[in-house]
Write a structure and sequence with these properties.
With 671 residues, the protein is of the alpha+beta class. It contains eleven helices and 33 strands. Helix 4 packs across helix 5, helix 7 crosses helix 8 and helix 8 packs across helix 9.
C-alpha cells in the first residue's frame, strides 16, 4: 500500500526556524543547493503528456477474450481452493455470494478447527478493533457516516449439508475486544489428517461501506477488496521459524494489511449490464449478458487473495507486453474518464516497472496485470495491491505530477514482495513495504530520472521503532508508515551502501528466488544476506531491524590551543567525533584550517567515538563528518558540522546539507 504522508505545514515551520537560526549565525554562504526533493512525488518536474485530442479513443471492453490456461506446474503449495459466485446489487451496495472452499492440511498435525477472516466486519461500528485503532482515518482518507459495512454468513455447511453455523465463534486473540468480529473459528465434526482435505460451503452477504480503507463504493464505482470469507494462514513447522504446525491468527487492525495461504480461485461475478469488471487473474470466457446482468468468470492460481472492481465508467485499455523475465502478459488499464488521456503514462509506468523488477529480482509468472484508477473522491480504494491487480490513486486532477507514476511503480513492486514472496504483513510488514519502497525508488531513478532525497527522508525519523513487530504495536498510522516504509527502505540502503548496488541486487534476487511462494521471515532474509556477502550481519540487524536505533554521527567538540614546536608557534586542535546508535561502517571526516588547508580523515566506524589531535600553523576553522551524506540512517544531521572560530557560548553545530535543504524548502512553499 502506498502512504500519503504530507508534511507541508511542519516543513514550513521547520524551514522558518532554520532560516532564522542561520541568519543569526551568519551562515549565508552555505545556501547553495544541489539537491532534488523527490520524496514528495508532486515536487518533481511535470512529465510531458499528449493532449486528449492526440490519443485514440480506447476500447470500452475486449470483444474477445484470449484463453490462458492454468499453469501446468504448480508454483505454490495451493493449500486453499475457492469456487465463488458473487452478485453485485448496485442500488443497495450489497454483495450476495456463495462459496465452496477446500482446505488441504499441509502439516504433520491433525487439525480440528478452521479459522476465517471476515474483514468487512471491521466497518460495523466505531467499536471494532480496526475503527478504534484507526480513528476512522487511513492515510489522508476518512470514513464518512456511510462508511458502515458488514459480512453476514447466511449458511455454512459441510459437503453433506451438515450446518456448522451453530458452532461458529468469533475470536479476538490480539485484544479481547468483544465488539470485534473479524476473525471466526469453526470446530469441525471430523478432524483433518495430515495431507487430508475438507470442503466447506458458505452463503454470505456483504454490505459495502462508502469507500474507505481499501474497500467499498464511491458513486457507481465498486472496490471489492477483502470481500469474501477468507481462510487464515496455516504455518507448518519451519515456516518463519515456527517450531510446530499452527494457524497464524490476527484480527483486522488499523495498521495491518494481510497474510494468507496460496491457492486457486475460480470466481463468477455478476453485475448490472452497464458495468465493466476488473479482477485478479484472467477471464476464462467473454462476459455474458443475461436478464439485465453481465456475468464474468475469472480464474487465478498460485495467488493468496482475489480482488475485483466494477464501474460503468471504466475506460478500458489493453496491451500485450513481454520482456526478459516477463514471458507474456496482458496489461489492462481500467481508467476513470478524467484520466483517459493519461493512458500512455499509466501503460508506460506499468511496463517499465514490471520489466525492471523482473530483470532485477525474478520472473513474473502471471498472464495478466490490471491497473485500476478510482474516480475522484474514491481514493479510499487507491494505492493498493492485490495479486495481478493494483489500484492507482484516484483521478483527483486532470494533470497529476509524478505521483501517478510513483504510485503505479510502487504497487506493481508489491506483485513481487507481497504477491509472490508473500511476507506476513501482520507481523513483519517491513519485508513487504520496505522492500517495495526500496525497489520503487530504483525504478523511479532508472526510468524517470527522479531521485529521492535520502537525507531529507532520514530527517523524518523522529520516532524510530523496531521493524520486526506486529503492525498495530506502532503508535499510529504515521508512526507505522515512517518505520515500515521509510526507515525500512533506509535500512536496506544502508546495506547497499556497504556492499555495493550490484551485490545488493544479487542479494535481493537470491532472496526472491529462494523464498517466492514460501512466506519468509526477517531471519530468512538475514540468512540470505549473510550467505551472499559471506559476512555476519547480526549487529546491524540488532541495531536497526530488531532495535530502534538510527546512526547519528556528530562533531562533538573542538578544542584549540596555541603550542610551540621547534620554537615555532602552532595550534593544537583536538576534535572528538561520536556516534549514537548503530554503525553503517566508515565515516569520512574533513577538517579545514584557517589557511585553507584541508585534512581528510576516515573513521572506521568502530566504537562509539574517535578523537583527532592535529598540529598546524593556523587554527582549525571547521569540521564536518559525513560530508557526502552517505550515512543513510543519520536523522540529526544538524550536528554533523561545527565551526571552530565562534565563541564557545555561541558555537552551534550545523549541517551543511540541511542548510541546502532549507533553500529548497523555501522554494517549495508554493507547491
Amino acid at each position: 500500500m502506498y502512504p500519503r504522508k504530507m508534511l507541508r505545514i511542519a516543513t514550513i515551520l521547520a524551514t522558518t526556524a532554520v532560516l532564522v537560526l542561520s541568519l543569526r549565525q551568519s551562515f549565508g554562504d552555505a545556501w547553495l543547493s544541489g539537491y532534488t526533493y523527490a520524496y514528495n512525488p508532486t515536487a518533481a518536474p511535470q512529465p510531458s503528456v499528449k493532449t486528449p485530442e492526440t490519443l485514440q479513443q480506447p476500447a470500452s471492453e475486449p470483444e474477445t477474450v484470449p484463453k490462458p490456461k492454468p499453469k501446468p506446474v504448480a508454483l505454490s503449495n495451493r493449500i486453499a481452493e475457492y469456487h465463488m459466485d458473487v452478485h453485485l446489487h448496485d442500488k443497495d451496495k450489497k454483495l450476495h455470494g456463495t462459496q465452496s472452499v477446500t482446505w488441504k492440511n499441509p502439516g504433520q498435525t491433525t487439525v480440528s478447527e478452521l479459522y476465517f477472516h471476515l474483514y468487512p466486519n471491521a466497518f460495523m461500528n466505531k467499536n471494532t478493533t480496526f475503527m478504534r485503532e484507526s480513528g476512522g482515518k487511513l492515510r489522508e482518507d476518512r470514513a464518512t457516516a456511510d462508511s458502515v459495512g458488514y459480512m453476514k454468513l447466511n449458511a455454512l455447511t459441510l459437503e453433506n449439508g451438515t450446518s456448522l453455523l451453530p458452532a461458529l465463534q468469533y475470536v479476538r486473540p490480539d485484544d479481547n475486544n468483544p465488539n470485534d468480529m473479524t476473525l471466526a473459528r469453526i470446530r469441525l465434526p471430523e478432524p483433518v489428517a495430515p495431507g487430508g482435505k475438507v470442503t466447506l460451503k458458505t452463503a454470505f452477504e456483504v454490505k459495502l461501506p462508502e469507500v474507505f480503507a481499501r474497500m467499498g463504493y464511491s458513486g457507481d464505482f465498486i472496490m471489492a477488496g477483502q470481500w469474501f470469507p477468507k481462510l487464515a494462514a496455516y504455518e507448518t513447522a519451519g515456516t518463519r521459524g515456527s517450531t510446530k504446525d499452527g494457524w497464524n491468527l490476527h484480527q483486522y487492525h488499523g495498521n495491518s494489511e494481510f497474510y494468507s495461504d496460496f491457492g486457486i480461485y475460480n470466481v463468477r461475478i455478476q453485475v448490472p449490464s452497464r458495468y465493466k469488471v476488473a479482477a485478479t487473474g484472467f477471464p476464462t470466457k467473454s462476459p455474458v449478458i443475461s436478464g439485465g446482468n453481465k456475468i464474468y468468470h475469472f480464474y487465478a492460481d498460485d495467488v493468496h487473495d482475489f480482488a475485483w472492481a466494477a464501474s460503468p465508467d471504466f475506460v478500458y485499455v489493453e496491451e500485450a507486453f513481454s520482456a526478459p523475465g516477463v514471458p507474456g502478459v496482458r496489461i489492462k488499464l481500467y481508467l476513470d474518464p478524467l484520466h483517459a488521456h493519461l493512458k500512455e503514462r499509466y501503460m508506460h509506468a506499468a511496463k517499465s516497472s514490471l520489466a525492471k523488477y523482473a530483470h532485477w529480482y525474478g520472473d513474473y509468472p502471471y498472464s495478466t496485470l490490471s491497473v485500476i484508477v478510482p474516480p475522484k473522491g474514491g481514493n479510499g480504494a487507491g494505492g493498493m495491491e492485490y495479486p495481478t491487480l493494483v489500484t492507482a490513486f484516484a483521478a483527483e486532477s486532470e494533470s497529476p505530477g509524478y505521483s501517478l507514476e510513483r504510485t503505479v511503480v510502487h504497487e506493481i513492486g508489491h506483485q513481487f514482495w507481497y504477491g509472490m514472496v508473500a511476507s506476513n504483513e501482520f507481523e513483519e510488514a517491513w519485508l513487504d513495504e520496505g522492500f517495495t519502497s526500496y525497489a520503487e525508488d530504483k525504478v523511479m531513478e532508472a526510468v524517470y530520472g527522479v531521485e529521492s532525497n535520502l537525507p531529507i527522508e532520514s530527517s523524518y525519523m523522529t520516532s524510530p521503532a523496531p521493524l520486526k513487530q506486529h503492525s498495530w504495536h506502532y503508535e499510529n498510522n504515521d508512526h507505522y508508515a515512517e518505520n515500515v516504509y521509510m526507515r525500512a527502505k533506509l535500512v536496506l540502503l544502508g546495506i547497499e551502501q556497504q556492499v555495493g548496488e550490484a551485490k545488493m541486487q544479487a542479494i535481493l534476487r537470491a532472496y526472491f528466488k529462494s523464498f517466492k511462494f514460501r512466506h519468509p521471515s526477517t531471519e530468512d532474509f538475514q540468512a540470505i544476506l549473510e550467505k551472499v556477502t559471506d559476512r555476519p550481519w547480526g549487529d546491524y540487524f540488532k541495531a536497526f531491524v530488531y532495535g530502534s536505533e538510527m546512526s547519528d554521527v556528530a562533531v562533538d567538540s573542538i578544542h584549540i590551543k596555541p603550542v610551540k614546536k621547534d620554537g615555532k608557534k602552532q595550534y593544537e586542535s583536538v576534535v572528538r567525533i561520536r556516534r549514537e546508535g548503530g554503525s553503517l561502517g566508515p565515516v569520512a571526516v574533513i577538517l579545514q584550517f584557517a589557511d585553507g588547508t584541508t585534512m581528510p580523515r576516515v573513521w572506521d566506524g568502530n566504537g562509539t567515538e574517535i578523537e583527532y589531535r592535529l598540529n598546524h600553523d593556523t587554527p582549525l576553522s571547521w569540521v564536518i563528518a559525513d560530508p557526502n551524506l552517505t550515512n543513510m540512517l543519520d536523522n540529526k544531521r544538524i550536528n554533523n558540522f561545527m565551526k571552530a572560530e565562534l565563541p564557545a557560548k555561541e558555537r552551534n553545530r550545523w549541517n551543511m546539507g540541511l542548510v541546502k535543504l532549507v533553500e529548497l524548502m523555501l522554494s517549495r512553499i508554493g507547491w
